[in-house]
Every structure is written in C-alpha cells, then in structure tokens.
Amino acid sequence: MKTRTLLFSSSLAIWLVGCLVLFSATRWQGGTGLLLRQLAAGAVGLSLGLALAQLELKRLRQLTWPLFGAGLCSLAVVLVAGTSAKGAQRWLSLGPLGTIQPSEPMKLLLVLALAHLMTRFPARRAGGFLLAWVLTGGAFLMVAAQPDLGTGLVLVAVAFGMLWVAGASPFYLAGVAVGGLGALTFVLKEYQRDRIMVFLHPDLDPMGQGYSLMQSLTAIGSGQLFGRGLLAGHLTQQGFVPENWTDFAFTVVGEELGLAGSLGLLLLCALQLGSLLAIAWRSQDYPRLLATGVAVMLGFQLSVNLAMTMGLAPVVGIPLPLVSYGGSALITNLAALGLVAGLARRSQPRQAAMHPLPLRQRLPLAG
Amino acid sequence: MTSRLRLALLAAFALSVMAALAARMVDMQWRHGSEYAAAARQSSVVIEPVAAPRGRLLDRRGRLLVSNEPCFQLTVFPAEMRDRKLTARRLADALQVKPEQLSARLQKAVFQAPLEKLVLRRSLTPGQISRLLLVTPELPGAAVEVGARRRYLAGRLAAHVLGAMGEIDAHELPTRRKLGYAAGDPMGRSGLERQYDFLLRGKKGQRHLAVDVLGRTVRVLEVVDPVPGADLHLTLDTRIQQTAQRALAETLAELRTLNQEESSGAVVVMEASTGRIRALASLPDFDPAIFVRGIKPRELDALYSDPRHPLLSRAYQSSFSPGSTFKLITGSAALQEKLCTSGSVFVCGGSYMGANCFVTSGHGGIGFVDSLAHSCDVVYYRLGHQLGIDRLSRYCAAFSLGKPTGLDVPAETGGLLPTASWKERELGEEWYPGDTVNMAIGQGFLLVSPLQMAVATAAVANGGQVPRPYLVEKAVGPNGRILHQGRPRLRKLPVSRHHLAAVRQGMRGAVQYGTGVACDAPQVAVAGKTGTVESFANVSNPHGRNHVWFVSYAPADKPELVVVVFLEKSGGYGGSLAAPIARKVYDFVYPP
Q: Torsion over CA of A44, A46, A50 and A55, rounded to 10 degrees?
C-alpha cells in the first residue's frame, strides 16, 4: 500500500470515529447541531487540504511569513477583542460564520515557519537555534496569555521535535527543557496548578477539578473488553462525563466501544503517525521538517489527550486530533494532513512519473 | 547523528508512548473493567428522597393538637453548585445570616453527600423568600421549595408532653442511619415527638433520577411513594389540660405579685384505675413553634440559661421532696407491717426525737385516720422510726417511687430513693434513725416527681393496683391499621385492701375537715392529702420558700381521677395554694 493511501485511509477512519463520538456524546442533549457544524468544518478542511496538496512548495515558502504574521495578528486581536469562555479568551467572532480559534491554525503556521526558518538558518548552529525559539516563544506567549496552556505546550513540543530532527544539539534542547520547566512553575495560573494537584491526587476534590477526571476514568474503564455498544454508554448517554465531545471525547470510545475500540483507535493513530514519519524519512530538508512538524503536532496532542483522559497526565486542554469537536482544530489538522500528503507525492517522483493516470485521479486523498 | 537517525529515534519514542497508552487501556478496561463498571452504575442515578407527611397528634376526643402546614425552604443540591463561596455569600445575604455558617455546611455537603439534596433552611420568612427568589436563578443548585413543618393548633398547650421538633443530631446519626434517617432529617427532640418518632415520621419515598453532569434530571427511573407517619391518639383531654394549665398559671401569676419571685409548678391528672394521663401540665413552658420556624441561637441560649428551666417538665423530669403527701406511703406500710391499726390512737406532744410536729403545741390524742387528715408529723415520725429505712424503702419501691414510672416519654426522672447503703456510698455516712424519721414525713433525701406521686395516689385510690401511666392510646397508620395500642398495665401493691381503705378514709377526712378543705367540692367527694416541704435558703431558693403539694382523687367512693398539684418555691402551704388548683380541675370535670 502506498504511504499516502495509508495516511489518507487512517485519517479518514479516525475522522469517522470522531463523527460517531460527537453524535453519541451530544445525543442526550438532543439535536445534531454540533455534528452538522463539524461536518461543515470537515468539508472546509478537506478542500483546504486538497489545495495545499497541490500547492508548489516554493509558493508555500513565499506565503509562510505573511501567513505566520497574520496568525500572530489574529492572536493579538483575540487578546484584545476575543470571546471568553471558562475564564479564557480564545475565540474570534466571525459574525454569521461562527467563531474561530486562532490558536489552532497557529500550530500549523508554526510548523511552516520553523521549517522555512531552519532550512535558511541551520538549527545545529546557535543562531538558528535561537531564532527558532524566538519564533516559538512569540507564538507561545500569545497563546499562553489567553490563557491556553495546552495549545502553548503543543507549540513548544512542535519546536522540540523539529529542532531535534533538524540536528539541534541535544544539550541545547535539554537546557531549554530544564529552563522552560523552571519558568513554567512561575507562570502557571492557579487553576492550572490545581489541575496538576488533582492529577497527583484525583480524590482531593471529587466534585470540582477531580470530577472530570473521575468520570472520565469511570467511563473508559466501564467499557471493559468490547464496550457497551455505540449509543449505549451509561455515562456517555446521560451526560455524566463533562466535555466528552471535546477534550474528553476518548471516553465515548472507551465506554461504548471498549478495549477493542480503544486499541483500534490507537492502531489507526499509530498508522497515521507512522505514515507521516515514513514520508519524513523519504524526504529531505524542508519537506522532511514539514512532515516531522505535522507528525509531532498530531502525535503530541494525541498522546497527551489519551494520557490525560486515562489519568496518566494532568488535565490540560488538549483535544484529540480529528475526534474532538472544534472546527478550527479540524480544519487545521486536515489542512496539515493534506500538505504532508502532497509532500508524499513529491517525494516519490519515480512512482509518480510511472503513473499513467492524471494527477487529480491519482490523489484520492484530496487533502 | 544523521537526520534520519534522529527521525528513527523520534519514531521509537512515539512507539513507546503508544505502547504505554495501550498498556493503560488494557489495565483499565480489561483488568479493572468490572470495578469501573460498578462505579459507573452508581454515579448516574441520583436518589432523591421524598419526605413523608409526619403523623398528627390528636387528643382523646380526636381534637387535633399538632398537624402539618406547608412552608418554604431553601434547598441546595451540592453537586450542581458551581462556586461554593459565592453561593454561601449570596444566600447568606438573602437570609441575613453570617456566610461562614452556610459555607461550612455547604462544604461538608459537597464532600460527604454531593448527590443528596440539602435543606439549608426551613420555614423561610416572606422577606427571606423574596430576597432568595432574586438570587437563586443565578446560583445553580440552590432553590426555594415547598416543604412541610409542624403546626401547633393548641399553641403552648402541653408543650412538654407533645415535644419540640428539630433536626437529627450529628452524634445520633450513625446509630439511626440504618433506621432510614439521613443528615438534616427532621426529628422529634423531646416529648412524644421524640418517643414516637419512629411511628410519626413514616417512611420516606424515593425518586430515582437519571441525572446529567449539570444535575439536570434526564428522566425519572423509579418512584417509591412515601408512607405517611402514623397519627397518635393521645389519652390527653384538651379541655382538662387547658383547665389545669390555666389554674396553674393563675396561681403562679398571683404568687409572682406576692413573692416578687418566679415560681413553677405542675399538675397531673390521671385515670385512677388505668394510668391514662388526662392532663400533664408544667409551667413555665415554651412555645414549640419557635423550634419549627428555626430557633435563633440567642433564643435557644435564653431557654437553656433560664434559671426556671422552661424546657423541663416539672411533672416528670424534676423531682422534689414529697412532704406530707408521703404519709400515704408511711401509713400504708405501717398498717401492712402491723405497727398500728386503723383504730390505733397515738399521742402527739408536739415533737418526737427532737423533731417538731408542724403543730408545735401538739395534736394531743389522735387516731390513725385523723393523723392523715390533720397531717400529724409525730405519729409518722414514730411509725417511720419503727419501720426502719429498709422496710420504708421497700414500700417506696412498691409504690413506684424512686424509679421512672414508665410513662411513654423520653428522659423521665427516677427521682431518688435513699437506702442505708446509698447513703454510705454517696455521702460516706451511716444511716441515722433521724434520717428515717425525717423521711417518714417526706423530708430529707427522698425525691419524687409529681407523676410518681400521682401513681402512688392512684394505687391507694384504686385499692392496690400500681398503674403504669401512659399518654398514647393508639397509633393509627395511614391505612387505618393500629400500629401501637396503649394498654393499662397494673402491678399489685403488697398492701391489703382494707389497710388502703383506712388511708383513703384519712384522705377523705383531710378534705372534709382537715388540711385540704380548700378542695372540698360540694358536687363531688374529693379525697386528698396536702404536703408542704420546708426548704432551707440556698442559691436556687434564696428565700427558702416552701414547695407545696396536693395529691387527691375523686369521687371518694369510686375513684375515677387522680389529681396531683405541685408548686415549687411557692411558699405557703399545700392546703392553701395547691388544693385550690385541684379544686378547679374537679369543678371542671364534675361541674357544680
């Protein structure tokens, strides 16, 4: 099977699981409004992905700085005029089109910007290394100020992964890691510190911060081997798991589809990440860094999200890519996947040249 | 290190993270899956208790004394509450109480029973309701709901007997949980409300609700209807109780102007042959309604620190020296022990063994019957001395003195029945003959409650049956089933009938021509015995005022009712103060 076919089919399957989860998680509230909006966002994301797959890399590199600048600007606007929810200011209103969350596209924009930067200023030199962190730090601060620590952590993880593959000194990276952790303890908001305390002692506050986690653990565990069946989860169907259509979406898989479904989803994710890394393996320089960045972006969110719903990591607001509800995230992720699928095409010029079919038909991925 | 090697290491790292996640899934869903499944079943269903209507209290003629009325109450569902401090502050503002009080209760509820609805405040006032309705819409979990509270149709009538309501005490909760009590449940605090709480409270119903994460009801899964509590049909007669309470109150009011000091008192009216209590009055009393509308700490403090102890029933929760009314027991014992006969004639010289007769000049020659009628102390000094403490104590116990009579109320006093060994144990002194002499006329160590004296008087009146007094005739469940039936329980007194007849003759004489003529009603033949307890001045009785007694029954030839009157620190004499109160009761029951 061709790598990009694998990437396409695994991603599509994960997205389908996401739609089922969303349907199941919001059914008790009545209405399918969220599902329809998610499908619409999916259509937008697929189109964007398709377009990016076709885009010349040269053109993409030309667009990188304007896009990154626009991303930073939108983050700045969010801080000034954003919509608040749950104590954070993360959304921008687009009038009738709904709201967007500019921190989501920022993840992909940072991948683009870092890849572009690192091919100009090698990361193995101190100058390039520093420049990369200036970019990342800027984006991180804008996001963390909302405050949205989860997305900020994704940005930092992306930078780490790309710098590592770009050849940055392990000592520099270790230094940044230690310094960053130290600084983090100062800037953590009270609720963020609470979350970490709750992670360490979940029974400390069973009705507050700990409640989400306890309900999440209970839902996932109660799925047992084969789950309670789709739309039949006891806790899911009665709205007992908070946020189970966004950050805690995995609880629906865990409860309704059981261990079989959970491992299946994990396998799909592994295939998706594997194909992303395989494409990176076969590419060079800029495309390799792009593929690596997208792989880290998705892999980090996936791992942290699953770990947090299963009580292995503190509850930070990181969604499960392609599964959690959220239009901005879905569009960003589909666009990123389309971009890398386009790289796959370019990294296999021999196969592409041998192919008799026109380009459009050879790209079932379309994004 | 090449870029590809670094990429391979990154892939390996990703793979190990995946493996760890897979291992966690296996651990949670396979190895511990059944435990989580059990937890899942519990957390989704909220069991909301449905309060059962509390049983009512009715008098012997079916007149309602205590029933229920709707009231507004403030409830909080802890799991739904978002911001505890804010909720406590806003609710406290509306209730006009200190936020700390509410905050502490809310915090406890959140941790101990987050899915149990908590009644934060019962019996809201109109002002509180209107202020609460302004803030509760903004406070998730808080609501003003309709509840029920006790309604006292007879006001303060027989307040001690009927009892006050409150919430279950924290220290009682552990033992009562298995009986179905939950924190914050209303519960009788005293009197019949407490004694028969298990019948009155009924059985709470339940609504099993499937509830979502916000505490909103998704659907009602199961409803178990509550079982209303049983109605208590009492032996009390409202009108006799009213008469007794009013007569007592009038006398106490007179004494207040006379003595410039508060006195207290009790009246017991009991059926002589069965022990059915017709009236059990005690003053000062309290208004049971203040407990229902949420007593303020200041009011409760005032009730507790009041030196007259208005929460205690003088009739069965306090004990006093019986004074000369005790001569019934000394006399009966002396006759039974053949120390004298009903025809014996004694000589009273005014004193015996250094103790004076209350007629200090002496009664001269006096027969047994007249010794009771005129309450000659010397005769009973002598008889008591001859009996000795052991026999005297034995007869006291036989007359049900010095131990609870078994009335169906909580916290009945036993009084104090002294014996020679008691005195050595408690006071480290041997029992002197003088102690017996003193006790023979009801002074000294012996302490009895007015109710105990009523039981002893009934035994004399009915010819030797010691009744166990009772207040509840029957408890009728919601389906008409009788859940409890009060039955007279009589114990044989070891004194033969003709000896008791002599004592009765003396009591009749006391009313006809002796110390108790104040109770000589023309329409009914009353028999009685006065008592005056001389008290030394002490802290609680600074003027050393007498306690006075009058024990009686009527009609003399066929006793129906026993009436016992007791006044504490009244001064005066039993014949002058207590007997007229009994007379008012007899005048009401046997109208002229």
A: 50
